[in-house]
Amino acid sequence: MLRIRVIYNFFDFIDEKEEAIKKMFKQHENPQPQVAMIEAYLRANKMFVDHSEPQQERVYSSYLELDLEAVEPCVSGPKRPHDRVALKEMKVDWHSCLDNKVGFKGFAIPKEAQDKVAEFSFHGQPAELKHGSVVIAAITSCTNTSNPSVMLGAALVAKKACELGLQVKPWIKTSLAPGSGGVTKYLLQSGLQKYLNQQGFHIVGYGCTTCIGNSGEIDESVASVITENDIVAAAVLSGNRNIEGRVHPLTRANYLASPPLVVAYALAGTVDIDFEKEPIGTGKDGKSVYFKDIWPSTEEIVDVVQSSVLPDMFKSTYEAITKGNSMWNELSVPANTLYSWEAKSTYIHEPPYFKNMTMDPPGAHGVKDAYCLLNFGDSITTDHISPAGNIHKDSPAAKYLLDRGVERKDFNSYGSRRGNDEVMARGTFANIRLVNKLLNGEVGPKTLHVPTGEKLSVFDAAMKYKAANHDTIILAGAEYGSGSSRDWAAKGPMLLGVKAVIAKSFERIHRSNLVGMGIVPLCFKPGEDADTLGLTGHERYTIDLSSNIDEIKPGQDVKVTTDTGKSFICTARFDTEVELAYFNHGGILPYVIRNLIKQ
Question: What are phi and psi for residue 141, nearest 5 degrees?
């Protein structure tokens, strides 16, 4: 067990503790009960240190130390949220990414092409793009957009830029989606929203937007110049996910940043910049404007927070939450106990999880002579497995929707159609940045149908295997299923007929979700993977698991044999007895239904 020792010592250098308490809990008219409750909780959990009391050395199994002097501004990207880049190193890191081979930190752009400038006309206005040009800048609702200091900090950056005469280029798609209606109120109270508006950061809504792929289309002229010139365009957003293909199909580089930095990069128009040394732009007086010229001081932020973030804003916002709104309240709702499925709906469809279900569990099972549907490397995320954003016009999901009279402009996103299993099954492994070893590293949502040698969409190949009654498995590297804990990343593969995933390691929640959908998670032994074992994915795989659930134990060894004569031992990643019970029932959904019926 990891225990983190947290030292709370808020008031060492504050003379008036009462005033400090009021500032910290200003949304409460009477903050003392809140402070007392928090202190009691921390003391009960041995996390409170009061330096006025005798100190007792506590012993923990692990210690984490953070040197506050080492904390510095940073962003993360261009393809994974955990690839942190110090702001001062951004330009150097960007050029390394252009040089590096295609991967998490590489685009493999030839040296001679790295400085290419593509000129075009944006609605009659001269414009240009090059590698690193920002085409999407979004302050999104994820994580930090209910934090007044960063939201008002972003607004102060916009204000300073306006006063100096800087303006975000019109071809950059900008948006502001706060995490709360309260944010709108304090931005308006501060008088700063108008500066965000002037820079293009208008409020577009209060839910998941660009971070989940809901940015919408970028201007056609911008899209064309990116595609025709193979530009590595960038998006900068204050979200928490930047997995390949998630934000927008045409932004290969996606950086996560704080809201103020999003505004700064939008003003600069590129991620290929050293903020410490290079100007962001030219002011109305003809002088260069630098990052330091538009960055607000801590005092400026504190002052506007204190004057603009008021308790009544939050009270009025959250008091209305349970009341709904007129559009929602006026919806006609049938009085039926059971949901009435609408056969023609492309948004909500009756799922097949309980079809032909009996009261007797199907029991445990191995896998016999399965084909490999996909052969992956490391860090395949849930966004690669089940994308939530754009539905590509040439995808199986797009064909399904077109066949049902849905126009392309009304496709919406996979996330918005997650209530329709027909769409989501077709969207499984539909990420446009998917790299599948069966196709020798070719990028795209395709795979090889091994028996015929055809290159097909993953969905079409899976259906061909199912039609022939062939089971399938997936080979993968480390961190399979990392990223958002998305249930469809397990439901989708199950619907495609995947019976097992053999990986170097799994993300914790995704492994559990696979078990919950009846898919067997197996781990290669340490030091082994598909490559070291000489597996190409063209083999057929038999997984030796007993049909008697009582003979399977959490973490036991399992033998896997191929039709080429190779065999190897894996660890069965059923980690608990409860997970074995789910597997015995064919997954958690039938397990729950059977138990409810018995009750």
Answer: -80, -5
Q: What are phi and psi of 404, to 5 degrees?
A: -105, 20
Taking Cα atoms as reference points, which of 168, 157, 93 lies closest to residue 135?
A: 168
Distance CA 94, CA 565 (A): 46
Q: Which helix (H) or strand (E) holds 237?
A: strand 234-237
Which pLDDT band, with edges at 50, 70 and 90, does 298 fall under? Answer: very high
Average pLDDT across the chain, whole number: 90
CB atoms inside a 10 Å sphere around CB 293: 16
When pLDDT is averaged across residues 572-579 and rounded to a whole number, the result is 96
Residue whose entry in the numeric block shows the structure tokens 């399977």: 552
Segment 82-101 mean pLDDT? 96
Alpha carbons 185 and 316: distance in angstroms, whole number? 10
Nearest to 431 by CA among 477, 473, 389, 462: 389
Read off the amino acid at residue 156: L
Q: In 123-223, at which residue ranges do the beta strands (DSSP E only) sit?
A: 125-130, 134-139, 173-176
If one compares 67 and 165, the residue with the highest pLDDT of the two is: 165
Side-chain-facing half-sphere of 450: CA atoms under 13 Å: 22
Nearest residue to 537 via CA among 377, 309, 379, 421: 377
User: Confidence band (pLDDT; 50, 70, 90) for 2?
Assistant: very low
Helix, coil or strand: residue 196: helix
* Residue carrying structure tokens 């696979």: 514
Radius of gyration of the chain (CA): 27
Beta bridge partners of 522: 502, 572
pTM recorded for the entire structure: 0.83
302, 477, 479, 521, 598 from 527: Cα distances, Å? 52, 11, 15, 18, 46
Q: Strand, helix or coil at 132? A: coil
On the 0-12 / 13-18 / 19+ scale of CB atoms within 10 A, 104 is middle
For residue 555, the 8-state DSSP code is T
Average pLDDT for residues 112-134, to the nearest whole number?
Answer: 96
Which residues, 6 or more positions from 560, have their beta carbon under 8 angstroms from its beta carbon? 502, 522, 541, 542, 543, 544, 567, 568, 569, 570
CB 420 within 8 A of CB 345: yes
Q: Is the pLDDT of residue 483 over 90?
A: no
